[in-house]
Amino acid sequence: MTVPKASALIAADLRRRVVTGELAPGEQLPSETALMAEFGVSRPTLREAFRILEGESILTVVRGPRGGARVLEPDGSTAARYTGTLLQYQGTPLSDVYRARTELEVSAVGMLAAARAKGPVRALELLAGEGDGLIDDEAAFAAYSLRFHIGVVENAGCTTLAVLGRMLFDILDTHNAQFIAAHPPGFERVANEKAQAAYRKLAKLLLDRDGAAAQRHWRRHLEAVQEFMVGQSDTALVEVLS
Question: What positions does the domain HTH gntR-type occupy (predicted)?
């Protein structure tokens, strides 16, 4: 059995304080001298623990007399980067990520339809109304579309599903930006119109409590999106994220 290094144990302790709220985002940690005394370690060991947490985007460290370690609010981007690296290493095709997104969002739609409270669906309906004036602005519509897809999974009431969704959306958003840049202005207008109609229809089906129809509709829409964005290409994820 491998005994963890002192720096890893300190990092684990500080990480626990952050995730439990004992240390809040934006809060500055005690001085290095105070933490060295608390943990009974040398400055290099403490700084190694800081480097571990900096790599996880949990802390940021400013050097100098007025510096120190400050807590960052976790945003999932680090997990997304690691996930992207793992998928690239395994030679995952881009189409695989789109398929995973489809299964995740269709599940989220089922949860939304089954929920007793109408508040989350009303929020999605309001969000769907924001896209009508953005169809001709490809970058603005892409940002709005991302917010809508995030809204689908985050309003489903399952935190784990939402976190997994954000990791996939980070990857797909990178591909979408490359797709827009690779095509002439106006290329996506028809697709944007279809997407906006799909968003409004999804909200209506959910408000009508027709969960089965909502899931069928959303699966068809996401499969059409994959066909438009990827087609029959076997593009590897490494070509998108490298």
Answer: 4-74
